[in-house]
Design brief:
It contains eight helices and 15 strands. It has 334 residues and is of the alpha/beta class. The protein has two domains: 137 residues, Rossmann fold, CATH 3.40.50; 185 residues, Dihydrodipicolinate Reductase, domain 2.
């Protein structure tokens, strides 16, 4: 692909802002950058590579001449506008749930299934943040000894609900420390000094949307309908890095030291597993980092060939914007 014209759809959100930062950091080649958001942001300017670019309103006619769209404006906006972008000739890397489970739309984590990118028909879906942060560190294990079952307990940061949710966490913490009643506007429950079941809708089975996403997306990304996945997703008072306790049942036994060696060489992963110092992945260390941190690696003797581990990854970065930029970088080479 030639040096592309790039559009960011949803530029004013947390992920949109991270797109901007990563395009600069990674020296992503851009012929012209178009910034798109809702009508209320029109005219606001954002600096990119020394120039100020005015935000335009995102409409069906916004995509003429655009080669790549980095989209993170919410599922309903994506469903409305992405087909127009594709019709105009753009390839859309979409960071919403709108297209993830559409059969002919690739759902891609570049460290796992980059070959699926070439199957796109104008849309490539970015997986859910919890799925990305879980699968990047366990895929090397899956390649060495197929995972039969994954049990996940997530500890999800406020950033997963957007910039306003992060601001609410900060505001509530200050209010509580000042002995004031905390303000609730984004989350249904107090997030500061508290945790609660993930704030997505619960279906008739008792599982929330976030948990169901992890199940379905894992099967699609691994191209394995037989893998068993169960998740419990929890929102915690952390700003921007998700953590997850993961329990794997493998087809064959792998020794802990063998797993450590696999992960120490794995792309997109950093091993943090110091038993002597009791130092393992923490969201404070994962925030702002590209890699997913992995540690607490130990045998789970409650099942055959069981392994337990703990991971932490930046939800805005690898869980969203970075994964999309990595997909776009592969597109450039095609």
């Amino acid at each position: 692909m030639k040096k592309p014209n790039v559009a960011i759809l949803g530029v004013t959100g947390a992920v949109g802002q991270e797109f901007m930062q990563l395009l600069e950091e990674r020296n992503f080649p851009v012929a012209e950058l178009t910034l798109l958001a809702s009508a209320r942001s029109v005219g606001k300017k954002i600096k990119f590579r020394g120039k100020e670019i005015a935000i335009r309103e995102a409409t069906p006619d916004s995509f003429k001449g655009i080669d790549i769209v980095l989209s993170s404006a919410g599922g309903s906006v994506s469903k409305q506008l992405v087909p127009h972008a594709v019709k105009a000739g753009a390839v859309v890397v979409d960071n919403t749930s709108a297209f993830r489970m559409v059969p002919d739309v690739p759902l891609v984590i570049p460290e796992i299934n980059p070959e699926d990118i070439r199957k796109h028909k104008g849309i490539i879906a970015n997986p859910n943040c919890s799925t990305i942060i879980a699968l990047v560190p366990i895929f090397p294990i899956h390649r060495a000894a197929k995972i039969r079952r994954l049990v996940a307990a997530t500890y999800q940061a406020a950033s997963g609900a957007g910039a306003k949710a992060m601001a609410e966490l900060e505001k509530q913490a200050m209010e509580i420390l000042e002995k004031k009643k905390p303000t609730l506007s984004v989350f249904p429950h107090q997030i500061a000094f508290n945790l609660f079941s993930h704030n997505s809708a619960i279906d008739a089975t008792g599982y929330c949307e976030e948990e169901i996403k992890m199940v379905r997306e894992t099967k699609k990304i691994f191209h394995d309908d037989q893998i068993k996945v169960v998740a419990t997703c929890v929102r915690v008072p952390v700003f921007r890095a998700h953590s997850e306790a993961l329990y794997l049942e493998l087809e064959k036994k792998l020794e802990v030291e063998e797993i450590r060696k696999l992960l120490s060489k794995a792309q997109g992963v950093r091993l943090i597993d110091d038993r002597q110092k009791n130092y393992f992945p923490m969201p404070i260390d994962a925030s702002g980092k590209d890699d997913v941190l992995v540690g607490r690696i130990r045998e789970d003797d409650t099942v055959s060939n069981g392994v337990a581990l703990f991971v932490s990854g930046d939800q805005i970065r690898k869980g969203a914007a970075l994964n999309a930029i990595q997909i776009a970088e592969i597109l450039l080479k095609s």
